[in-house]
Amino acid sequence: MHISLSLLQISNFGLNLAEGFGINTNIFETNIINLAAVLAVVISFVGKNLTALLEDRKKTILGNLQEASQRAAEAQERLNQAKAQLELAKKKAQQIREEGVLRATQEVNNCVSQHEERLSKLEEFKQETVQFYQQKAFKQAYIYVISCIMSRVKERLNKGLDSTYHVVVNNFYVSRFTEYNP
């Protein structure tokens, strides 16, 4: 390979092939030419593989980017769904709270009205009880007074009427007789 490179060097620099083989003593030119030749060989053999490798890597990266973009879109969709569910849950919670307040208010009003009704019935029962015991007391007092009067009358009748009581009874009947108008 070194010989073919030397031939290339000679032909490139305007030397005839007929002049023969020679040694190029300019090391700088030889190294550059050798480097160029090595690069050409490397690029020709490795370049296609490197290009294919880079192309595969590019496809992998693009696929990963598309997959990441798709996952981001799915995550955004799930986030939007979660936000919608959160809003729905907030609305339901508010509705339940309002319904609870309404039910509590109704229950309080119901309890108050039942309490007032019970108080009114209790007051009515109290009045009836007081009236009953008043009537009972009046009846007992009436019976007591009547029994006292009756016992005194029996006592007077058993003793007989004396002159003062006889006059009182007669005056009573006379006054009743005079008041009578037919």
TrEMBL record:
Q: Per its UniProt record, what InterPro entries does this chain match?
A: ATP_synth_b/b'su_bac/chlpt
Q: Superkingdom of the source? A: Eukaryota
Q: Name one GO cellular component term.
A: chloroplast thylakoid membrane
Q: What is its main location?
A: membrane
Q: Which residues form a coiled coil?
A: 58-99
Q: Is Magnesium included in the keywords of this UniProt record? A: no
Q: Where in the cell is it found?
A: Membrane; Plastid, Chloroplast thylakoid membrane
**Membrane protein topology class:** Single-pass membrane protein
Question: Pfam families recorded for this chain?
Answer: ATP-synt_B
Q: Which UniProt keywords apply?
A: ATP synthesis, CF(0), Chloroplast, Coiled coil, Hydrogen ion transport, Ion transport, Membrane, Plastid, Thylakoid, Transmembrane, Transmembrane helix, Transport
Q: Which GO MF terms are attached to this record?
A: proton-transporting ATP synthase activity, rotational mechanism
Additional record remark: In plastids the F-type ATPase is also known as CF(1)CF(0).
Family, per entry: Belongs to the ATPase B chain family.
Q: How is this protein organized at the quaternary level? A: F-type ATPases have 2 components, F(1) - the catalytic core - and F(0) - the membrane proton channel. F(1) has five subunits: alpha(3), beta(3), gamma(1), delta(1), epsilon(1). F(0) has four main subunits: a(1), b(1), b'(1) and c(10-14). The alpha and beta chains form an alternating ring which encloses part of the gamma chain. F(1) is attached to F(0) by a central stalk formed by the gamma and epsilon chains, while a peripheral stalk is formed by the delta, b and b' chains.
Q: What does this protein do?
A: F(1)F(0) ATP synthase produces ATP from ADP in the presence of a proton or sodium gradient. F-type ATPases consist of two structural domains, F(1) containing the extramembraneous catalytic core and F(0) containing the membrane proton channel, linked together by a central stalk and a peripheral stalk. During catalysis, ATP synthesis in the catalytic domain of F(1) is coupled via a rotary mechanism of the central stalk subunits to proton translocation. Component of the F(0) channel, it forms part of the peripheral stalk, linking F(1) to F(0).
What is the protein name for this chain? Answer: ATP synthase subunit b, chloroplastic
